[in-house]
Design a protein that fits this description.
Elements lengths: L1 H10 L2 E4 L9 E5 L6 H9 L4 E5 L7 H9 L3 E3 L6 H12 L3 E4 L17 H9 L3 E7 L1 H5 L11 E5 L14 H21 L5
Parallel strand pairs: 1-7, 2-5, 2-6, 3-4, 3-5
Antiparallel strand pairs: 6-7
Length: 200
């Protein structure tokens, strides 16, 4: 997607670490979420197309967001009922060797730690038997954070963390919760590195 590379590499002072950690084959990508720009930045860090599960209530609020998510192949998902159709599409994408993205915080947040992470990304990775890849995005809240529709030219840094493998949690009593907690730990550590010890 050359347009995404142009936007990310030319418009924003962009840096990335950990690209060598992206495993081959299907995977569930789970990032923290400050900005509508995050899907583009995560794509640049991971280096492959990602189909995001996006809650349907988000549509209609921002034309930019609507265009971006549909252009990226987003899978609309209901928050008010069990999203059976969306999960089937996500599992089919993973079975075909693709990548599916989720934001465990469930929404854009003002600061890291504001929202308790949801278990959906870990559940999907475990159900499909694929790695869960934590990705930390720092600085996108300054470029286009929650509460604004304007884009500013600010530095954005992405760190791809070590992948989480469901098999490593097979003997845990609640593997999905344990994987979710490990996702949060890895993203928090990456954000501390990016912000110099602070994640607020």
């Amino acid at each position: 997607m050359p347009l995404l590379h142009f936007i990310g590499a030319r418009y924003f002072p962009f840096s990335c670490a950990g690209t060598e950690r992206v495993p081959q084959g299907p995977l569930v990508v789970a990032a923290n979420h400050f900005s509508h720009l995050d899907p583009v930045m995560v794509f640049l860090g991971v280096g492959r197309p990602i189909r995001y599960l996006a809650v349907d209530e988000l549509y209609g609020r921002s034309r930019f967001f609507d265009w971006l998510t549909f252009w990226l192949g987003a899978i609309p998902m209901s928050r008010s009922r069990v999203p059976v159709g969306a999960l089937r599409l996500a599992l089919a994408e993973l079975a075909a060797g693709g990548s599916v993205g989720l934001y465990p915080e469930g929404m854009r947040v003002w600061v890291w730690g504001e929202a308790r992470p949801k278990r959906g990304a870990a559940w999907l990775a475990r159900r499909a038997g694929v790695p869960l890849l934590p990705v930390a995005v720092a600085g996108s809240e300054e470029a286009m954070g929650r509460g604004t529709g304007r884009i500013s030219r600010r530095p954005i840094h992405v760190e791809v963390c070590e992948p989480i493998y469901p098999a490593d949690f097979a003997s845990v009593s609640d593997p999905v919760s344990a994987m979710t907690a490990e996702w949060a730990n890895r993203v928090a550590a990456a954000l501390r590195r990016a912000y110099g010890g602070s994640t607020s």
